[in-house]
Amino acid sequence: MSPSEAEKTNQPVTVLACPISLDYAYSAGQSASRFLRAIAEGKLLGQRCPVDGRVYFPSRGACPMHGVTFGDDAVELSDKGTIVTFSIVRVPSQNIALPLPYITVNVLLDGADTILIHVLDAKLEDVHMGMRVQAVWKPKEEWTTSTANILYFRPIDEPDAKYESYKEHI
Amino acid sequence: MREVAVVGFTQSPSVRREPDRNEIEILIPVIQALREQTGLSSKDFDFICSGSSDYLAGQSFAFVSGLDAVGAWPPVCESHVEMDGAWALYEAWVKIQMGYADTALVYGFGKPSMGDLPLTMALQLDPYTMMPLWPDAISIAGLQARHCLDAGLLRAEDMAAAAVRDRANAKNNPNAQVKGDFSVQQILAEPFLVNPLRKSDCAPISDGASAIVLAAGDRAKQLSDRPAWIRGIEHICEPMDLGIRDLGRSRSSEIAARKAGVSNDKIDVAELSAPFTHQEILVERALGLSQKTKVNPSGGALAGNPLMAVGLSRIGECATRIWSGEADRAVAHATSGPCLQQNLVCVLEGN
Ligand SMILES: [Zn+2]
Prior knowledge:
The structure holds two protein chains of two kinds.
Chain A: H1 3-9, H2 30-39, E1 44-48, E2 55-56, E3 75-77, E4 80-89, E5 102-109, E6 116-120, E7 132-137, E8 150-155
Antiparallel strand pairs in A: 1-2, 1-3, 4-5, 4-7, 5-6, 7-8
Chain B: E1 4-11, H1 23-38, E2 47-51, H2 54-57, E3 78-81, H3 85-97, E4 103-110, H4 117-120, H5 137-150, H6 156-169, H7 184-188, E5 192-194, E6 197-198, E7 208-216, H8 217-223, E8 228-237, H9 251-260, E9 269-271, H10 277-287, E10 294-295, H11 310-323, E11 329-336, E12 342-349
Parallel strand pairs in B: 2-3, 2-4, 9-10, 9-11
Antiparallel strand pairs in B: 1-7, 1-8, 4-7, 5-6, 8-12, 11-12
Helix pairs in contact in B: 3-11, 6-10, 9-10
């Protein structure tokens, strides 16, 4: 029984709720900040590993394979890419721009060596591996320093990518 | 027991607030400098262990991205403790003792400036009766200091003197955050922050990282002309409930010091990680140090307090003094939990 209930009924207090929360002034870091500032202008920035030349997207501080810093060199990527894998989602989730059921996809952006997880606006029966897609952006006046500037991906009229071009990312 | 030594140590400067870099970006140059210092690359480490806290980062599994600084390909043998890096070093030491590794990379990192540190620290209290009251860490330490003063265990002058000593020593430490010439009178003239603690009784809030390389036997001799051999290491934890502990002494430090063999021989240098002046005095007593020991030549935690790295850095600060020949025998201390709840003691020797 909570303190307010106990007071009304003249019963002992048995439950005491003490909600606590912590606030953070989060800083994304130098690399992620550069990525976020770029996406506010509609640009997608990745970074190239100096050891093996792979392009990581989004940009991050260091190569997770080689432990070396990426430095200040950024690589601008296309907003077109290839579907590597996909899944049909039938349970609701927050902040998804599409109605149920919808498709989540792993997209390999052209020029990138890491995948981006996003959602696809297409007929369920049409989605397939190798499908070429492009980002659909929010109206420009709504762009902020957020990946939510991209609403979803949508199929484009291009021939499927060859399996060899994305098999490493499955 | 296998002979295990500290053969590499690097650290970032302790700063009140890293404005741009995130935790990982603070850590990356520290690991890079360690590679250059030891000539080792990531694939030379048989085992990697880190200490950090998701509560400081405000993000679950924040520690995983720490591996970006290491480079985890080909796959590495790796572990993490949600504690100061000194405990990560203990885990690595055990791994080497068990014969699973000859070399280990240990690192700790934290960026407490992102949150409200004294309130964040309340989350390590007992979750049923104390944590819901959300007492901040300075108030909890203040209760302990008040007990020590009222019981006649120490005087306010003694506390101020600890701050004076550490800040003077820190003048020689380019990584220290709080340093300079102060007097006991000057500090006693400060208003109370949380009675009976003044601001100068409290360690600063610091962002930072540090890293150490451990190596066993001949491998250590290859990597260092004078390795800092770990001749004793122990950590002991006291109960969670503050009401059933003797807060006027650090029992767990006493036991850890005995088990680590602190008093077996003279101690040239001691590096303590106590975040409040009265706690530093309690730890100094618990270790049984004599007048001949130089305490906190780096300034200790009161001069720079990068949480989750500060204890590991104490071991590193001792090791560098062994390497240079400044000390033959040193003791490092790390702490965790409210009011010195858990303490680690590490004895390092040059011979
Ligand atoms: Zn790489």
